[in-house]
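Hi R.,

As promised on Friday, here is the backbone we talked about, encoded as structure tokens. Could you run it through your design pipeline when you get a chance and send me back a sequence?
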């Protein structure tokens, strides 16, 4: 079943049964679905960090049904602001970006992910099938691995047992009698010591080994020098790795880490568990259990634009991390987060993942930011399936020479690409037009 984000659908006689299969996930908040026991659904970035935009309070899918007695005759479905793949009760749903008109492939979603996650892989085959869940999981692995290792190699106390002459811990009487009697000069003892070879790093090692069995996985692990170096660190640290211990390692990691220093390991741990359990989930028959991976497309659109605009000198405050906020008063009250702004030429940009500016709140918001920063240009950047267009609206009563203006910038998303490489070539032309306009 193929849907688009932020779209409405009505059932027919042929697909009414499929619509009704979605009742277990419809009309429920994303946070509820993610947190429910034994579901295997990930929402990026919601599942990996706290999101200030309250994505978790949004519904994944809205479903309304019409009944004639005990028989359902009609179903109306509305998707939200997420795209990706989700499966339940044998039904597999692909949610595409509404700015990808190709029925079978969503090049735009793949491209935004690769840009945001800093992936340089272009030889990919895309399609609508269960394996796309796995591909998207693999996309996330290098980024979360690098984020975690930036905090250092994870270490924790481990209980180890030894039997030698170099006593460094508590003597284990029972084991000593069993192994060393009659006395042979050795002492059986146990220790509790810091180790880099632990449940967490073993989980990451098993994930690396599993990922390496696929062509895409091998390409991602060799994607850049940082990823390659971090993979090497994990391999060197996990000297006790044994392929046969995989189920045991997974079981030992079911409790997500809550370490005050290694905070970035928890998202990586979640992802590793999801990757390693993919085959089991794929072929399992657990009724009503949900699996899949979905992406906040508004977040991806904003972060995708950041890969272009920050290189042009624009600042990109991060409301999820509390970085770069401004205040509307000199008392540090009413904090606000702009999407992008550049001070030397007074440009303020707001990323809008919608075809056009629909709400007056969008206009009021960017004018507020312009007033606060004495901006001359307030720009709303939208993706579009049409041609690139800039619409200009001079502002009355603003600016020293009444020269301030609003702009809506329509960023062309190619619709006629022959394949993914062709799509990349064409969307890079759109990027060059944006760069030239604001260089």
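Update: got your reply. Pasting your designed sequence below so it's all in one thread:
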């Amino acid at each position: 079943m193929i849907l688009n984000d932020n779209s409405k659908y009505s059932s027919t006689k042929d697909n009414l049964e499929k619509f009704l299969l979605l009742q277990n996930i419809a009309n429920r908040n994303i946070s509820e679905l993610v947190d429910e026991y034994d579901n295997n659904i990930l929402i990026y970035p919601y599942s990996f960090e706290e999101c200030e935009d309250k994505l978790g309070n949004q519904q994944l899918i809205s479903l309304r049904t019409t009944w004639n007695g005990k028989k359902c005759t009609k179903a109306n479905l509305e998707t939200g602001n997420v795209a990706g793949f989700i499966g339940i009760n044998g039904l597999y749903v692909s949610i595409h970006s509404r700015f990808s008109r190709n029925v079978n492939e969503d090049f735009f979603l793949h491209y935004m992910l690769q840009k945001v996650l800093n992936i340089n892989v272009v030889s990919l085959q895309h399609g609508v099938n269960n394996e796309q869940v796995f591909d998207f999981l693999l996309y996330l692995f290098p980024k979360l691995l690098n984020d975690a290792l930036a905090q250092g190699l994870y270490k924790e106390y481990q209980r180890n047992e030894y039997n030698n002459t170099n006593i460094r811990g508590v003597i284990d009487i029972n084991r000593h009698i069993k192994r060393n009697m009659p006395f042979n000069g050795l002492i059986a003892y146990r220790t509790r010591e810091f180790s880099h070879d632990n449940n967490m790093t073993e989980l990451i090692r098993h994930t690396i080994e599993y990922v390496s069995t696929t062509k895409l996985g091998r390409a991602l692990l060799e994607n850049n020098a940082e990823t390659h170096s971090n993979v090497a660190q994990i391999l060197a640290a996990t000297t006790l790795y044994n392929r046969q211990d995989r189920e045991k390692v997974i079981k030992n990691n079911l409790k997500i880490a809550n370490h005050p220093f290694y905070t970035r390991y928890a998202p990586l741990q979640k992802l590793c568990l999801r990757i390693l359990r993919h085959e089991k989930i794929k072929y399992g028959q657990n009724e009503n259990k949900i699996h899949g991976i979905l992406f906040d497309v508004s977040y991806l659109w904003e972060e995708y634009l950041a890969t272009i605009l920050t290189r042009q000198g624009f600042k990109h405050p991060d409301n999820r991390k509390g970085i770069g906020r401004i205040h509307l008063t000199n008392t540090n009250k009413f904090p606000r987060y702009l999407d992008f702004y550049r001070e030397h030429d007074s440009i303020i940009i707001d990323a809008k993942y919608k075809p056009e500016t629909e709400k007056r709140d969008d206009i009021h918001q960017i004018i507020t930011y312009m007033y606060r920063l004495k901006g001359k240009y307030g720009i709303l950047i939208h993706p579009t399936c049409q041609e690139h267009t800039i619409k200009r609206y001079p502002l009355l009563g603003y600016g020293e020479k009444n020269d301030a203006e609003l702009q809506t910038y329509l960023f062309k998303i190619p619709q006629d690409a022959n394949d993914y490489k062709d799509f990349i070539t064409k969307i890079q032309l759109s990027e060059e037009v944006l760069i030239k306009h604001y260089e």
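One thing I noticed while checking it: The two ends are 43 Å apart (CA to CA).

Thanks again,
M.
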